[in-house]
C-alpha cells in the first residue's frame, strides 16, 4: 500500500490515517467539514488535498447511517482499487450497498474494536489500534486483493485481524459494546439528581461502571440506530434479570424466614452467574484471565510517584501485570493497586516496604 484516502476525520479515521502516515503511506484526507480535515492534516495524518489519481485503498470512517451513501459515491467516482469502512455495524451497510446494485468485489466491511470516550481528530492517536481486534467481514464476492489490502491496513495499524460474518459481528458487538454502554448510562443517570453527600462517596467501583457513559451521545445514537434489534433483545434479557433480582431483594425484607432464604438464594444465583460470565472476559494478551494478587501502595499526588513505584518493582525483578489507581476523595493521595503473579506478591511487598512505600492490605 502506497496511497490511501480516508473519508471521515473523526477519532477512528484520523487515528488510522496517523498510523498509515507514520509508516510511509501517502494519505489523503476528506471530510464533510473541511475544517476537521485540515485539523487532522495539521496533526500529521496526511494532506487535505484531493488525490490526483487512483489510490490503493479508500477508508470510509463515517457514522453507520452514512456509510452506504459515502461508499457508493466513492466507488462510482472510481477513487480507489479497494474500499472498506470502519463502522461499528456491518450487516446493515452491506445490505444497503447491495440494494444500490453496486459491484461489491472491491469492498470489505471492517470494524476496529477500539475507541475512547473523547471523539474528533484531536483525540486521535497513531497507536489507538495497537493490540486490539480488528474485525474483517469478507464475503464470497470479496476480491482477494481487497482482503489483502485490508489485512495490510490492520498490520500497519498493529491491530489483530479477526474474520467474522457481518451479522454475527453485529450480534457480538451488541453484547460486548452496545448493550453495556446503555447499561453504563442507566447507572450513571442515577447520579444526576443524587444528593451531593452520596456522590462524594463514589469509589472505584462506580467509576469503573460509569466510565463509558461519558461518550458523545450523538455518536451513540448513530451506532444504536444501526443495530437496534440485537441490542433490544439483550436489554430485554437484562430487564428480566433485574425483575428477578428486585423480587429477590424485596423478599429479603420479609418477616418470613423462608421468603428471606429464597431471596438470598435468588441474589446469590445472580451474583454467581456474574462471576461465571466475568471469568470469560479475556485477560492479558487475549488469554484466559489470570488470578493475580494485588499489592496496594499508598501514594501522594506528586510528580514521579508512579515512575518510582515501577522502577522499584523492576529492581525487585517483579513484572507488574496490570495496574489500577483508586483516588482518595478530598485528599491529595491515592491507592495504586499493582497486580502481580501470586508467587511474586510477598517479594514485591517486602521490596517496596524497604524503599519506604506504605503498603496496604
From TrEMBL:
GO terms for biological process: tyrosine biosynthetic process. Residues 2-282 form the Prephenate/arogenate dehydrogenase domain. InterPro entries: 6-PGluconate_DH-like_C_sf, ACT_dom, NAD(P)-bd_dom_sf, PDH_C, PDH_N, Preph/Arog_dehydrog, Prephen_DH. Residues 260-285 are annotated as: Disordered. It catalyses: prephenate + NAD(+) = 3-(4-hydroxyphenyl)pyruvate + CO2 + NADH. Residues 294-361 form the ACT domain. This is Prephenate dehydrogenase. The lineage of its organism: Bacteria, Bacillati, Actinomycetota, Actinomycetes, Kitasatosporales.
Amino acid at each position: 500500500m502506497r496511497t490511501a484516502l480516508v473519508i471521515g476525520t473523526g477519532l477512528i479515521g484520523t487515528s488510522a490515517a496517523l498510523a498509515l502516515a507514520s509508516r510511509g503511506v501517502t494519505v489523503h484526507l476528506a471530510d464533510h467539514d473541511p475544517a476537521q480535515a485540515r485539523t487532522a492534516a495539521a496533526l500529521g495524518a496526511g494532506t487535505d488535498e484531493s488525490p490526483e489519481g487512483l489510490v490503493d485503498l479508500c477508508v470510509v470512517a463515517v457514522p453507520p447511517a452514512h456509510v452506504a451513501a459515502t461508499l457508493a459515491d466513492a466507488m462510482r467516482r472510481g477513487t480507489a482499487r479497494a474500499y472498506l469502512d470502519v463502522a461499528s455495524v456491518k450487516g446493515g451497510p452491506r445490505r444497503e450497498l447491495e440494494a444500490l446494485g453496486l459491484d461489491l468485489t472491491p469492498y470489505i466491511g471492517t470494524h476496529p474494536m477500539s475507541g475512547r470516550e473523547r471523539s474528533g481528530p484531536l483525540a486521535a492517536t497513531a497507536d489507538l489500534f495497537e493490540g486490539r481486534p480488528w474485525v474483517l467481514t469478507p464475503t464470497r464476492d470479496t476480491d482477494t486483493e481487497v482482503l489483502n489490502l485490508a489485512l495490510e491496513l490492520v498490520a500497519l495499524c498493529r491491530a489483530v485481524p479477526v474474520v467474522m460474518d457481518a451479522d454475527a459481528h453485529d450480534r457480538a458487538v451488541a453484547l460486548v459494546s452496545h448493550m453495556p454502554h446503555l447499561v453504563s448510562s442507566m447507572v450513571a443517570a442515577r447520579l444526576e439528581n443524587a444528593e451531593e453527600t452520596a456522590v462524594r462517596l463514589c469509589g472505584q467501583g462506580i467509576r469503573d461502571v460509569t466510565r463509558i457513559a461519558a461518550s458523545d451521545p450523538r455518536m451513540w445514537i448513530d451506532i444504536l440506530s444501526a443495530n437496534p434489534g440485537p441490542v433490544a433483545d439483550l436489554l430485554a434479557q437484562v430487564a428480566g434479570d433485574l425483575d428477578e433480582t428486585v423480587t429477590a431483594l424485596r423478599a429479603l425484607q420479609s418477616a418470613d424466614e423462608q421468603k428471606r432464604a429464597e431471596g438470598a438464594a435468588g441474589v446469590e444465583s445472580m451474583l454467581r452467574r456474574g462471576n461465571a460470565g466475568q471469568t470469560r472476559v479475556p485477560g492479558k494478551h487475549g488469554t484466559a484471565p489470570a488470578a493475580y494478587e494485588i499489592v496496594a501502595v499508598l501514594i501522594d499526588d506528586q510528580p514521579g510517584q508512579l515512575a518510582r513505584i515501577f522502577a522499584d518493582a523492576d529492581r525487585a525483578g517483579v513484572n507488574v501485570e496490570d495496574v489500577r489507581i483508586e483516588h482518595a476523595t478530598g485528599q491529595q493521595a491515592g491507592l495504586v493497586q499493582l497486580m502481580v503473579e501470586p508467587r511474586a506478591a510477598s517479594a514485591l511487598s517486602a521490596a517496596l516496604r524497604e524503599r519506604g512505600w506504605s503498603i496496604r492490605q
